[in-house]
Amino acid sequence: MSSDPPRTRIQRRNRRAILEAALAVFSQHGFRGATLDQIAAEAGLSKPNLLYYFPSKEAIHETLLAGLLETWLDPLRALDPAGDPIEEILGYVRRKLAMSRDFPRESRLFANEILQGAPRIGPTLDGELKSLVDEKAAVIAGWSAAGRIADVDPWHLIFSIWALTQHYADFDVQVRAVLGPDRGDPFDGAERHLVTLFTRLLTP
Known about the structure:
With 204 residues, the protein is mainly alpha-helical.
């Protein structure tokens, strides 16, 4: 049980403001390019006030990443071994694409951490993330072995889903520039394309 005293309403509000500001600054500038001064200014707080809540830039970044990883893993956790195999995998594709649409800054924060060699979340990648992927890969392999989906490498299938959905968050500016203003929301076309692509790939 934590011995920390409960936070006041103002303290909770300020912590949320700092984390929201840090998300904006980190997703734009990366960890190395971000500064505490930038985060404090974005949050509307003084730097000493910010340091009352978080002792360092690293502490803010780690808090953001910890919360993000929980959210990031939820769509894969929801893949149901008892469900229809193709529909379960397509459901995962849709959930990952929705996360790119709804949480683009979080996606870029995660991508920046990975590009730097994952110095702050390496143990989680080797631990919780690997265990979950291995668990779901075994489910997908079982579906393949039973002939319920085509013969696919389950790990590389999951990597492909990550790449093809997170691209729309991490390269949003490029996607919208290439499509042009007349094409509307790119996520509508992306979902139709990815559902068709993975349905053809997975159908025995």
